[in-house]
Structure prediction request, 326 residues.
Amino acid sequence: MADTIRWGIIGTGSIARKFAEGLTSLLDAEIVAIGSRSQANADEFARQFNVFHRHASYEAVVTNPDVDAVYIATPHSLHAENTLMALAAGKPVLCEKPFTINARQAESVVQAARSTGILLMEAMWTRFLPPIVRLRGMLAEGIIGEVRALEADFGFRKESREGRLYDPALGGGALLDIGVYPISLASMIFGPPSQVAGVADLGATGVDEQAAIVLGHPQGQLALLHASIRTHTFNEASVIGTLGRIKLHRSWWKGSDMTLSLDGGGEEFLDFPFTGNGFQFEAAEFMECLREGRSESKIMPLHETLAIMKTLDTLRAQWGLKYPME
Ligand SMILES: NC(=O)c1ccc[n+]([C@@H]2O[C@H](COP(=O)([O-])OP(=O)(O)OC[C@H]3O[C@@H](n4cnc5c(N)ncnc54)[C@H](OP(=O)(O)O)[C@@H]3O)[C@@H](O)[C@H]2O)c1
Prediction:
């Protein structure tokens, strides 16, 4: 593997731009190809990020011999198809969250990667941010004792019901778009749930506009989660243990600060600031896996991605939320 990993990006929307900006923080990464449904979008993206190959198709990115790794930034409904296409072309894939529309799709994608040994990872960027890395360390050290509960929410108000977020054909709704963040946080802390329960408000377009979720875990640990695309919530997360609590402050999935409160008294404000927009950390993990010849990340392994997709499926089944492509 060359010193510099040469990325190809599929899709030119908002997250593709953030990821491209994140890569500028890494000295050993370069974007060499961008793929779009339209030449004009590819050209515009390429101009902005100084990309050499500007393709008017996604396929041209994955078959481009100059591309070492593919980042998929299309709507959820295309993740499985795009990932399978890249894997078939022999390209390692970092795919945006939610990994796919449902667990069935996820299983087929994981199976394709495992049968070839090609690196595949869900782009759950939060997990790689310095404060979350430190949180994992603090929990492993037992600083707040035995962790018994998590409370976490992610909500913003998207006024217009036009576009991807509310469109069932693109896998719209709060759960798949942002509910996956607190669910992934619960999974990181407790592992897979043994009980899954949720209540959702299905809105005018038929997708979940807000959802309350409770996950139960084998040792009795609970996760109380909330996701919304109709209301701006506090966007905080609290990890609660037998000896104290850690509160991740506003916009916890991208934030840098937290407060540690111990039952014996004392509160400590902790900050783990980072440079760049934060998307470089998931890319750095992926690139390290690639260089080491690993087919999965230990921090975001495929069995966990599959379990998260199953949780999403279980919740949608309870709500009667089925997408047209299912
Ligand atoms: N990790 C994060 O923080 C984060 C944040 C936001 C979104 N995401 C995830 O990233 C994915 C993309 O989200 P986004 O917010 O970037 O969406 P977006 O702004 O709508 O961009 C999606 C891109 O996908 C391509 N596309 C292909 N078929 C499309 C279709 N039928 N409708 C719309 N776009 C289509 C388009 O690029 P071309 O026209 O150039 O082909 C479009 O620019 C989603 O799965 C989302 O969950 C992750």
Observations:
- Residues 11-16, 36-38, 41, 73-76, 78, 96-97, 123, 125, 164, 170, 177 surround NAP (CB under 6 Å).
- The first strand starts at residue 5 and ends at 10.
- Residues 6 and 30 are 5 Å apart (CA to CA).
